């Protein structure tokens, strides 16, 4: 009798363990981030579980969430796609080259929210929104789209290199301000290449 009860207990325990393991991947996706994403206005933590199902664990997103650095800012394949997203989702308010319209300019060194000089800060603003017309994008763009559009916003920058905190020393040396009319080849190789080249 005792023996049976133990067996039952053990198998129940196993069921609970298996159910628990099944739930683990979801929990770790939301919690594995080393970066602290917060709403720029309220300071509230942004819920990384509250995102579109696609594009949430691409290599680029994983790298960003573990390092806080956007690996796309110098990758032509990602910039190309980031530009498309920017033109569809941001330029109506911020202007075609981020020069500012009903929303503030994004291509100079003045920031209403100083944390936008970091990759995590800018990503958080896009994810969680700010005041007024600047709504959250976590349910209209995937995490990967947001990373790409962040890269494009950096690419549009025309201000002094000394204020471009998001660039590392090597990137600062090769920095050239955005020039209107600049083009990229179609489907360049890189982390976001549609044809899978990298
Ligand atoms: C419907 C209009 C609208 C759209 C669409 C929009 N924005 Fe905004 N955005 C604004 C407004 C207005 C503000 C100012 C909000 C504030 O000061 O809190 C703003 C603020 C910002 C800021 C903060 C700038 C600073 O100086 O700190 C960033 C960054 C930003 N937007 C990026 C984006 C990106 C990237 C997109 C596209 C994914 C986007 N916005 C889409 C209207 C918009």
TrEMBL record:
Write the record's keywords in alphabetical order, separated by commas.
Electron transport, Heme, Iron, Metal-binding, Methanol utilization, Periplasm, Transport
Q: Which GO terms describe its molecular function?
A: electron transfer activity; heme binding; iron ion binding
Main localization of the protein described in the UniProt heading: periplasm
Kindly list the biological process annotations in GO that this record carries.
methanol metabolic process
An example Gene Ontology cellular component term from the record? periplasmic space
* Modifications made to the protein after synthesis: Binds 1 heme c group covalently per subunit.
Q: Give the protein's recorded name.
A: Cytochrome c-L
């Amino acid at each position: 009798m005792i023996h049976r009860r133990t067996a039952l207990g053990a198998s129940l325990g196993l069921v609970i363990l298996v159910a628990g393991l099944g739930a683990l991947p979801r929990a770790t996706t939301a919690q594995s981030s080393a970066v602290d994403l917060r709403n720029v206005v309220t300071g509230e933590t942004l819920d990384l579980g509250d995102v579109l199902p696609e594009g949430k664990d691409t290599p680029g997103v994983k790298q960003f969430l573990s390092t806080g650095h956007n690996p796309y800012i110098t990758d032509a394949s990602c910039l190309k796609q980031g530009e498309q997203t920017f033109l569809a989702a941001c330029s109506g308010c911020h202007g075609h080259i981020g020069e500012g319209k009903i929303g503030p300019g994004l291509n100079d060194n003045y920031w209403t929210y100083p944390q936008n000089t970091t990759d995590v800060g800018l990503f958080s603003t896009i994810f969680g929104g700010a005041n007024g017309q600047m709504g959250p994008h976590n349910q209209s763009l995937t995490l990967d789209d947001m990373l790409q559009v962040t890269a494009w916003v950096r690419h549009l920058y025309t201000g002094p290199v000394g204020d471009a905190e998001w660039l590392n020393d090597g990137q600062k040396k090769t920095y050239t301000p955005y020039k209107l009319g600049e083009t990229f080849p179609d489907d360049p190789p890189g982390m976001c290449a549609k044809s899978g080249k990298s």
